Request: fold
Amino acid sequence: MQMGIDFWEFLAPDDDSVVVIDLNYSTDRIKKMNRELNPNGLNAIAIKTNPLVEVLRNLNQQNAAFEAASMGEIAIAKAAGIPNNRIVFDSPVKTKLELNWLNSQFLGGYINADSFDDLQNMQNFSQEIHLGLRLNPSMNIQSPNSLNVSGANSKFGEILHEISEEWIQKLRQFDRLDGLHVHQASQNSDFSNTLKGIRKVVDLANALPPKKIKFINIGGGLAFDYHQSKEADIDLYFSELKAICPELFDGTYQLITEFGRYYYAGGTSVYSRVEHVKEIANGRKMAIIHVGADMFLRESYNNSDWYHRLSVLDANGHEGNADQRSLTYNYDIGGPLCFAGDIPFRNHDLPEIQVGDWLKIHDAGANTFALWSRHCSRPFPLVIGHQNGKYFVLKHRETIQDVVRFWSDERNL
Reply:
């Protein structure tokens, strides 16, 4: 593996964007999270947040577990060397073929059913597979609407309004059920209602026959403050969780978590070259860069919910030089895609941006390139890792032929 002391040395002349990931950021956080749990706890990192195989392989060295939302994500975890007993499978829709594969090839793993129907389909599964049921305690968590799965109209889980004898009897019918799962929202700073929802699930577990429920999966979803580059106070969260749900820490149940953004958001920056600068209305300006709604999909479609700090670097990639420019303007930042909504960042006051400068997009590691869009068929950019003072390639830039291959039947190429 080629190593370097500066990521810029890895860029070819036609690299117009690059993702740079500090691997120590996620490593430090999984070490911290592992210290929070009792010895049999499991911190499963959401693969959907950052599916890069080399990133998972690095975290595997810390015995991290992973949450997979599709068979593709299970395959990514396996490619990174993750064993079944450190994979939690949460797909809300599972085909019969997938269930057959899981029953024979996923021994030791964890599967959460999304409904009673889903759970019924797995009642003949091997005893070596852990089966949970996802519940929606209907707490109406405060989070962006597109990420809130706690309301009465959520597509996820079975709604648990109150613990009743009917609920208890229904769960007793499922002999293979040995876990309960709850995930109420993402980008969630509503500790109070979140913890109340978890408490309701624990109470349901306590109402069932002793030892029936072995694990409780509390999901993840804690918010990251993109204005301050600051993650949620995980110490406070766990302190309050321990006070409200001591059974999750005293060995009564195995505790499983499924955070994603917490591990990745702040450790990654995206750099993209400024190709054009335009005058727009009211004395404002528009800078056009080479990533937009293809990488920052949520930011483009829900500007009001998402924000990233931006910095201007000069054409040589030096930070600070642009800050010394005397003029400041209010900018919108447009991407390279051919549709009007490709403006991921709006109303940023920045030093005067010049053609050839580089724009640095901060805190870009969570749910950004993981949502990569093929609209307009642009290649996925170069990804560089940084660890222990060295830089190295995590994923090479796609070629145009890679893009053609995606849209083709390879047998006809």
Notes: The first strand starts at residue 17 and ends at 22. Residues 23-264 form a domain with the TIM Barrel fold (CATH 3.20.20.10). Residues 191-207 form the longest helix (17 residues).
